Amino acid sequence: MDNHFLGIGWHFPLALDDDGQVKMASHEESIRQSIRMILSTSPGERTMHPDFGCDIHDLVFDVNSAATAGAVASAVEDALIEWEPRIDVLAVNAFPDPERPNYLLIEVSYQVRSTNSRFNLVYPFYPE
């Protein structure tokens, strides 16, 4: 199946390939990396695009509770709807990491609009 319409962009984080060229991410991997970039960026970090990112960073010092998990899930869903037009967000859940009490795991279930392929991504978040 030809997935070129899903896009090709610079690999995140920025890296060089074996030939010294900028490493590229393509297709579903490009979308996965885009989601991670959105969640890793706090609004205001990008000078030329100050609205870009996810508001979960405002919650870093909140108590790790069910209320914080709900606020995190809501912020993630809002950011992905705003900044990643290639997907439909199916569900976002945030829950404590059983092995690390100060971590939340954010599980994002999404569907690529153009192929109807479904994917899950788990993103670690560290509220205090």
UniProtKB/TrEMBL annotation:
Origin, by domain of life?
Answer: Bacteria
Residue intervals of the IraD/Gp25-like domain: 26-116
A Pfam family found in this protein is GPW_gp25
Name of the molecule in the record: Baseplate protein
